[in-house]
Write a structure and sequence with these properties.
Number of helices: 6
Structural class: alpha/beta
Number of strands: 6
Strand order of the largest sheet: 2-1-3-4-5-6
CATH topology: Rossmann fold
CATH architecture: 3-Layer(aba) Sandwich
C-alpha cells in the first residue's frame, strides 16, 4: 500500500508554562526534529491581555488556513476568547483544544479567563475545524470536558479515560497520539 503524504504545515503550540517533560515541549522537539515550523506560545503567569498579545505574535505572518494550532489547558481558554473576538489575523486550518479547565477546577490565577465564551458560530468561524480532547478524570474540569465544552459548542469531543490534565505527571510527556494528529490531514483525534 502506498504511504500517504505527511502533513507539513506550521504548528502553533499554545499552552501554560510547559515543563520540559510535558507533551507540548516534547511535541515541539519532535516537530522541530522533523523539519517542521513550530511556534511555541508558552504562557508564564498569563493574563487575558498578555495571552492575547502573545497569541497574536505567535500567529503573525502565518498563511491563512495554512497552519494548525494545539492548545493545552489555559491555552484553550485563550483560544476560545480569541475566537469570540477575532477581527483579523491569520486563521488556522485545524485547532485541537486539549484539557480546557472549568471555572470550578482552574487555579485561582486563571480567574480572569472566566467566564469563557461558548458561542458556536465564532468558534466555527475561527478555524476550518476544531476538535476537543479531554479526560474523564481531569481535576481542573470536574463537570467533564464533553459536558463543560463539547455539548455547548456542538464540538467533536474525544474523551480519554484516566488521562487527568494531560501533563507529564499524568503520563503525557511523550504522547504519540498528538504527534500522529499533527501528521494527518484529518481533524479527528485518535487517542
Amino acid at each position: 500500500m502506498p504511504r500517504r503524504p505527511t502533513r507539513t504545515v506550521p504548528t502553533v503550540l499554545l499552552a501554560g508554562e510547559a515543563g520540559e517533560r510535558d507533551w507540548p515541549g516534547w511535541l515541539a522537539e519532535q516537530l522541530f526534529a522533523a523539519g517542521r515550523e513550530v511556534r511555541c506560545c508558552f504562557l508564564a503567569e498569563p493574563t487575558p491581555a498578555t495571552a492575547q498579545a502573545a497569541l497574536a505574535e505567535a500567529v503573525a505572518g502565518l498563511p491563512e488556513d495554512g497552519f494548525d494550532l494545539l492548545a493545552h489547558s489555559v491555552g484553550c481558554l485563550v483560544w476560545l476568547h480569541h475566537a469570540a473576538t477575532a477581527t483579523g489575523g491569520p486563521r488556522p486550518a485545524r485547532v485541537a483544544l486539549v484539557a480546557p479547565p472549568a471555572a470550578d477546577g482552574a487555579p485561582a490565577e486563571w480567574a480572569g479567563f472566566f467566564p469563557v465564551p461558548l458561542a458556536v458560530d465564532p468558534v466555527r468561524k475561527a478555524a476550518d475545524g476544531t476538535v476537543l480532547v479531554g479526560s474523564d478524570n481531569d481535576p481542573h474540569c470536574p463537570p467533564g470536558v464533553a459536558q463543560q465544552y463539547g455539548t455547548p459548542l456542538k464540538m467533536a469531543t474525544t474523551v480519554v479515560s484516566g488521562a487527568g490534565s494531560f501533563t507529564a505527571a499524568d503520563g503525557y510527556g511523550p504522547w504519540p497520539a498528538v504527534l500522529d494528529w499533527c501528521g494527518r490531514d484529518n481533524l479527528a483525534f485518535r487517542a
